[in-house]
Specification:
Number of strands: 2
Radius of gyration: 15 Å
Mean pLDDT: 96
Oligomer: single chain
Distance between the termini: 24 Å
Structural class: mainly alpha
Strand content: 5-15%
Helix content: 55-70%
Number of helices: 4
Order of helices and strands: EHHEHH
């Protein structure tokens, strides 16, 4: 699972005029939910994409590629 950078998301929201306290509460809740989702499978791993907003694929495509490549490597090793 890949999560966004909470501090980056808060900063972006503040640039759009949203209150910091509400943004921090939202991000804390969001990150708790993704941590809980990660625990649903023993092979899950949470990667936080630094300097990425909700649009991780646009902000940090390198993180997406790295995680997919790692997953492919793990699957390849598992079937050998």
């Amino acid at each position: 699972m890949i999560g966004r950078d909470a501090d980056y998301e808060v900063a972006q929201g503040m640039l759009n005029g949203l209150p910091e306290s509400e943004l921090r509460l939202l991000e804390a809740t969001w990150h708790q939910l993704i941590r809980e989702q990660t625990m649903l499978a023993t092979t899950s791993k949470l990667v936080i994409a630094e300097q990425a907003s909700h649009a991780i694929q646009l902000d940090r495509p390198d993180v997406i590629v790295a995680v997919v490549e790692e997953h492919i490597d793990q699957m390849t090793q598992a079937i050998q």
